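quick one
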Amino acid sequence: MTEHVTETGGMGSLAHGAGDLERRLADAVERLGHGLRSLAQSSARERGLSPLQQQTVLALVRKPAARREVSALAAEFDVTSPTLSDAVAALERKGLVARSPGPDGRRRLLALTDDGQEVARQLAPWDGPLLEAFARLPVADRATTLHSLLQVIADLQRRGVVSVVRTCTTCRFFESHAHADSAAPHHCHLLRAPLPLTDLRIDCPEHQPATA
Ligand code: SF4
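structure w/ iron/sulfur cluster:
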């Protein structure tokens, strides 16, 4: 039997091996999820918000104007429109969000008020510990981790587990492994250029679903 370093650091029989690697990866992702939920809850609580209200405020800073409306955000957050509507109504009562008619006159676009902008600025570092932990990894490790996570997200989207994603790996312009360069193996047919792993996008404004 092949000898391997055990989890306790000694040499011995294979304790886990690659056979349950996916189990440990899933457990690691679950741990990350717990940690992130805890960070989000404490950050939101400090400012008298629910985690969904915090997520909404942050999205109104980052999302393009056309996606700043209840049904689009509800789909991205995987919640129902009434649930998100309640969160938005609470933010309106707090004076952090205002609604205005969209260009089509029907949709109500959401925007942060001045107070909302200030709260968004305060909330911005909520996931700082995770960013700092990633920043301590070598760039090549960050790039391959991003690549692997985007492939997993694409797989989950195909199975209907994840709904709205605008990642390169789910885009119709994306061609997988079109180039021999291991640092830039994929190709974007919209940009007409190889995609370095470090440049893979997670929320691309030009994204079009691969199934469209
Ligand atoms: S259009 Fe955007 S999401 Fe699609 S492959 Fe190009 S960079 Fe990636």
